[in-house]
Amino acid sequence: MKRIIFGLSISALLCSVSCKKQAGEGGQATIKGKIMERKMSADFSTCYGQYVAADKTVYIVYGDDATYGNDTKTGPDGVYEFQYLRKGSYKIYTYSNDSAGTVGPPVNASAPKIAISKSVEITSRKQLVETGNIVIYN
């Protein structure tokens, strides 16, 4: 019986030391924001207007991970939300046309898209972190 109790105590100690929860899912915090889109002329010299970016994919990177851990779509109001997160560092990003990737005239229609990102930190268990607006170009 003493061996079982000793074994359980060692297991609990090892888990408390090595099982520290990292940034990611499994908590009660939320990151929320809005994607705004600017409609630009082909050469990016004129802005025709700004509006909410509905149905746009937004990605989240947990901590120091090399790739994204999850994604979501914006709603009709351009709002996105990642729920059930733990304390830690996160990066939120989405893709935009790259105005600097154009070569003109003529404009390079195959210019790459670029990631527009915001880094945020969750510091308390039930925190709501608002990233504000992320502006992309189309």
User: What profile does the largest beta sheet have?
Assistant: 4 strands, mixed
CATH superfamily, called what?
Answer: Immunoglobulins
Summarize the amount of helix as a percent range: 10-25%
How many E strands?
A: 8
Q: What is the arithmetic mean of pLDDT?
A: 84
Named CATH topology: Immunoglobulin-like
Description:
This protein is mainly β and 138 residues long. The protein has one domain (22-137): Sandwich (Immunoglobulin-like). 12% of the residues lie in helices and 50% in strands. The chain has one helix at 2-18, and strands spanning 25-40, 47-52, 57-62, 70-73, 79-85, 88-97, 113-122, 128-137. Strands 1, 2, 5 and 8 form a four-stranded mixed β-sheet that branches. A hairpin with a 6-residue loop joins strand 1 (25-40) and strand 2 (47-52). The radius of gyration is 21 Å and the shape is elongated. The relative contact order is 0.26. Residues 13-18 have low confidence and may be disordered.
Provide the fold topology.
Blueprint: H1 2-18, E1 25-40, E2 47-52, E3 57-62, E4 70-73, E5 79-85, E6 88-97, E7 113-122, E8 128-137
Parallel strand pairs: 1-8
Antiparallel strand pairs: 1-2, 1-5, 3-4, 3-6, 6-7
Q: What keywords describe this structure?
A:
four-stranded antiparallel beta sheet; mainly beta; Immunoglobulin-like
Short structural summary:
Helices cover 12% and strands 50% of the residues. It has 138 residues and is mainly beta. It has one domain: Immunoglobulins (Immunoglobulin-like, Sandwich).
